[in-house]
Amino acid sequence: MHIKKGDTVIVIAGKDKGKKGKVLSVDPKANRVIVENVNMVTKHQKPSVKVQQGGRVHMEAPVNASNVQLFDAKANAGTRVKMKTLEDGKKVRVSVKTGEVVD
């Protein structure tokens, strides 16, 4: 998967197109990511031991990983990434737009 937890991404499709946010979690099996303040949904929660006060909770829902691109601060835009192997054998992600190493 081209996106990792902690990356800053930009949404390229869907109702939140154009929004930027930090990746909170990644699910590679389902090809989904949860991005901060993107795809907000309202969940009705019952009172429990963890949550004393029940009610409506706003939270992020997962989006498909194909709908987000890694945000390149140097280019100030989203970019694709490619894998490159360094001389020491380490694999790193490289920005296609600027050629800089992301990791």
Automatic annotation (TrEMBL):
- SUPFAM superfamilies per the UniProt record, alphabetical: Translation proteins SH3-like domain
First and last residue of the signal peptide: none
Q: Which UniProt keywords apply?
A: Ribonucleoprotein, Ribosomal protein, RNA-binding, rRNA-binding
Q: Which PROSITE patterns match?
A: RIBOSOMAL_L24
The protein's matches in Pfam families, at most eight in alphabetical order, are given as:
KOW, ribosomal_L24
Q: Which residue ranges does the record assign to the KOW domain?
A: 2-29
Q: Which InterPro entries match?
A: KOW, Rib_uL2_dom2, Ribosomal_uL24, Ribosomal_uL24_C, Ribosomal_uL24_CS, Ribosomal_uL24_KOW, Translation_prot_SH3-like_sf
Q: Which residues form a coiled coil?
A: none
Q: Does the keyword DNA damage apply?
A: no
- Tell me if Ribonucleoprotein is a UniProt keyword of this record: yes
- List GO terms (cellular component aspect): ribosome
Family assignment from sequence similarity: Belongs to the universal ribosomal protein uL24 family.
**Subunit structure comment from the entry:** Part of the 50S ribosomal subunit.
Explain the purpose of this protein: One of two assembly initiator proteins, it binds directly to the 5'-end of the 23S rRNA, where it nucleates assembly of the 50S subunit.
**What's the protein name?**
Large ribosomal subunit protein uL24
Recorded source organism is Fusibacter paucivorans
Q: Which gene encodes it?
A: rplX
